[in-house]
Hints:
Radius of gyration of chain B: 20 Å
Number of domains of chain B: 1
Structural class of chain B: mainly alpha
Number of strands of chain B: 0
Number of helices of chain B: 6
Low-confidence stretches of chain B: none
Strand content of chain C: under 5%
Order of helices and strands of chain B: HHHHHH
Order of helices and strands of chain C: HHH
Low-confidence stretches of chain C: none
Distance between the termini of chain C: 51 Å
Shape of chain B: elongated
Number of strands of chain C: 0
Mean pLDDT of chain B: 84
Largest sheet of chain C: none
Helix content of chain B: over 70%
Oligomer: heterotrimer
Amino acid sequence: MGYIIAALSVVCLLGGLFFFATATIGLLRFPDFFTRLHATGKGDTLAVFLCLIGFAIHEGLSLTAMKIVVIAVFMFLAQPTATHAISRAGIRHGLKPWVKGEERQ
Amino acid sequence: MIASSDDIIIKTIARIFVPFIQLYALYVIMHGHYSPGGGFQGGVILGASMALLLITHGYDEVKRRFPENVVLLMGSVGVLIYAGIGLTCLLLGGNYLDYGQLSVILHVEPAHARSLGILGVELGVGFTVMAIMYSIFFDISTGGILPGDDKLNGELEDNG
Amino acid sequence: MNEFFVAVGLGLCLLVFLVLYRVIFGPGVFNRIAAISAVGTKTLIILLVLGYVYNRVDMFIDISMVYALLNFIGCIAAAKYLEMER
Lengths: 105, 160, 86
């Protein structure tokens, strides 16, 4: 039983690390502000969720695990809202989205 | 002056989050002697929740719920709680903030009285820090001139 | 299990250094804010890993929660300020 729980935790943490890496590559390689925000907004949210669930599975049933789940729910609501606010501010500020064929910013 | 955000997503999420943030701040204040935190940190989180409300819902809405004179009253009451507990210990024959002396009033053993005394002091510190942080945020975001204060506005316009 | 957590933390530190490129050289203030938000989410996990390494998760979980909270409020405030500026 202990092996199954450890394996689940490791799988969740490795998945979170993978999505963190993809979000970082997107942030570094994509051509303009909105596409970079697209990469980090989605990738980081899922990665944080997976990492926290991995920690909670490793912790078992306890007060700390409940707090970790609360952080996961909080991040799952807060991260998309922050991304939405920043992208909205960019549109209002007058940033133009990149279209194919233009120079990379 | 800060206007209300016209975006329904940000407003709704902020409205949902603010009570839970304040509950967490109270937890940080109450658990100050077992886990990281205490009066100052909990007060900063309370002030941050009020700043979030001010950013998303605008000046008029927040002023209606939590006006400036209540803020100043809360800051003064917090200092009064802190100094009052300290002076009570002094009057009961101990040093300033020597909580063990409170056991005479509270009818509990000295160790329990110390825990309760620290809790009271931290509540006072938390209220004061929250009120002063909120007041600083208010003053910076409005330039020191409050929009409802017509008399002061008129004087400033006359002078300049 | 502890060694695995240390490895995860080191990987996250490497990713934070990669994101710092966007924070320093990113054209314009908006790219920098997006990158700083990404650094904040990674720091949250690094704090939890530190808690497991030092065997004091019950302490570090509170710090981690406050970090998530302040990251969110900072993002909203920066977005509001840049929206007003024009």
